[in-house]
Amino acid sequence: MDKVKAMQAFVRIVEANSFSKAAETLNLPRAALSAAIKNLEGYLGAQLLQRTTRRLSLTPEGERYYRQCADILAAIEAAEADFLGESARPLHGKLRIDLPGSLGRALVLPRIAAFRAAYPELALSISLSDRLVDLTQEGIDCAVRVGALQDSALIARPLGCMRFVLAAAPGYLARRGKPAGVEDLAAHEGIVHFSGRTGRPFDWELDTPDGTRKVAVGGALAINDAEANLCCALQGLGLAQLGRYQARRHLESGELVEVLPGVRPTSMPVSLLYPRGRMASPRLQVFAHWLAGLFAEDRDLALEDDRKFR
User: Fold this and answer.
1) What are phi and psi of 111, to 5 degrees?
2) Measured at the alpha carbon of residue 208, what is the angle toward residues 206 and 209, in degrees to the nearest 5?
């Protein structure tokens, strides 16, 4: 049994979630693929896949073996790339990416055609969500996340820094007046942005000449989505804390007005997360560097210091 080919077949089946689809991409008969997995399971002495007429799922042993196979195959691909050179053969395979919805729609997806043109043999599976995904269990190669990161077995690399602005529609300010200082915010209607994971509202953390201050925002409208937050602010429903990259064209057009320009909301780091050892994959390397370039080019998302993505 060719162990590398068996691993490749197993990984392709898991990625396609189908014996038939995997057989098509490998240009093999479905029966040959079934026999290969049966031989692999016999060699390992463990069942890797649970098969029914409607579903295909990994056993606990299969999940562990899949992660190990993915890392081994990525290391082989990286070793070959070192010897063959980047231009010797095109990058191929599949890359699974999870992006925050607002960042994905505003920054990444409008430019994804350029990446596809540079790497046409590389298939991308992009999910847009703000939920806490398990990269290893869900087979995701990398995820972009905003904010301080919890302790994790994942590797985190800095991509950028999200800057915020306090803003409101001119109609709201005409009705309620413009706050002159941080102490005036309590008297205003705020659009409350709460966590979709925990349900807790996010306080506004403001960098003032007297130090950092936290403001608990009050209001009759609570939103758990950044784009919905912007939409409500544009309708004059209250003051909002918005990502500058989202708000800037509305600020330039006058649809929104910055309030307290001398007080800056605390910025938040943006990181690329990936399982340990996965950066050895040339597929992930090229995407990560392309993504870092997008952040570096955006004045409202670029890193605040001279750290370089490596």
Assistant:
1) -115, 5
2) 170
**Contact by Cβ (8 Å): 51, 59:** no
Would you put residue 229 in left (φ > 0), alpha (ψ -120 to 50) or beta? Answer: alpha
CA distances to 115, 116, 274, 294, 300 from 112, in Å: 5, 6, 20, 11, 20
Q: For residue 10, give the nearest of 76, 64, 75 by alpha carbon.
A: 64
CA distances from 204 to 14, 25, 186, 244, 271 (A): 43, 50, 12, 15, 21
Beta partners for 125?
A: 96
Question: Which residues, listed in sequence order, are joined to residue 222 by a DSSP beta bridge?
Answer: 192
Q: Which residue has the tokens 């089946």?
A: 13
Q: Which two tokens stand for residue 27?
A: 């240009």
Q: Is the pLDDT of residue 85 over 60?
A: no
pLDDT band at 307 (very low <50, low <70, confident <90, very high): very low
C-alpha distances (whole Å) from 14 to each of 33, 55, 65, 138, 303 are 12, 12, 11, 11, 37
What's the DSSP call for residue 192?
E
CA–CA gap between residue 283 and residue 69 (Å, rounded)? 16
Cα dist from 103 to 44, 137, 160, 190, 226, whole Å: 43, 24, 12, 23, 9
User: How many angstroms separate the Cα of 234 from the Cα of each of 51, 79, 237?
Assistant: 51, 52, 8
Instruction: Indicate the SS3 state at residue 97.
Output: strand
Q: Which residues contact 170 (CB under 8 A, 6 or more apart)?
A: 236, 254, 255, 257
For residues 118 and 163, the answer to whether their CB atoms sit within 8 Å is no
Alpha-carbon gap, residue 272 to 160, rounded angstroms: 9
At 87-120, the pLDDT tens digits run 445 577 889 999 999 999 999 999 999 999 999 9
**Residue 261: half-sphere exposure toward Cβ, Cα within 13 Å:** 4
